[in-house]
């Protein structure tokens, strides 16, 4: 079984699926605490060496020297506590701000569910190919080294089961990194359709191909959604599409700002 890996780019910049970034934040906090500890140890060592050089001649000097370490310890402890408080407050503000942004996106986020509507191995079949755009899937997706090649056509339906409309931009089939233009406005509970042209050998049972769709919502939030189309049996119409979750890219234009 072979799989095709889709390489995509946005405005000429390669894109990857987003992962978690909390590891970087934890490493930064550990680094900051390490720096604070190192400074604290350095100041403490300096104070100890300085005290050893002082001559204690009376009770007044002894009292002053004894309280010196506590004095500096209080200052250093206050600095550490203040830094930790600032970090905690900043982190809390960032968390709730991000939480509000996610909540706002979810309230308007589309979800395009892909499904195979019809199949044919004849391009002239008007029930499948007529009236919709035809996109050639990357031929390397399926092993076609065998001389006996077959051209398959699958009519795909994108049904919007999300909370807001989806203004589709491109379809990623693996042919080009920038995707292929697909300008359709799909309202909630509405759908858009297109056709895939797939070059494969007869024995494609167990194979799969990947594709993606990029779109924006009513709040100008941009998403990329990935799909996997699989052949389950010897019957070429026995296919299944696994729908990925929308990957948020960015907000292309902030609402209310020029």
Report on the structure:
With 258 residues, the chain is of the alpha+beta class. It folds into two domains: 15-107, no CATH class; 110-251, no CATH class. Helices cover 32% and strands 33% of the residues. Helix 1 (22-53) packs antiparallel against helix 2 (59-108).
Index terms:
elongated, alpha+beta, 2 domains, 258 residues, four-stranded mixed β-sheet, 32% helix, six-stranded antiparallel β-sheet
Record field, number of beta strands:
12
Structural class, judged by helices and strands?
alpha+beta
Compute the number of structural domains.
2
**H/E series:** EEHHEEEEEEEEEE
Shape: elongated
Q: Beta-strand percentage?
A: 25-35%
Uncertain runs = none
State the major sheet.
Answer: 6 strands, antiparallel
Number of helices: 2
Alpha carbon gyration radius: 31 Å
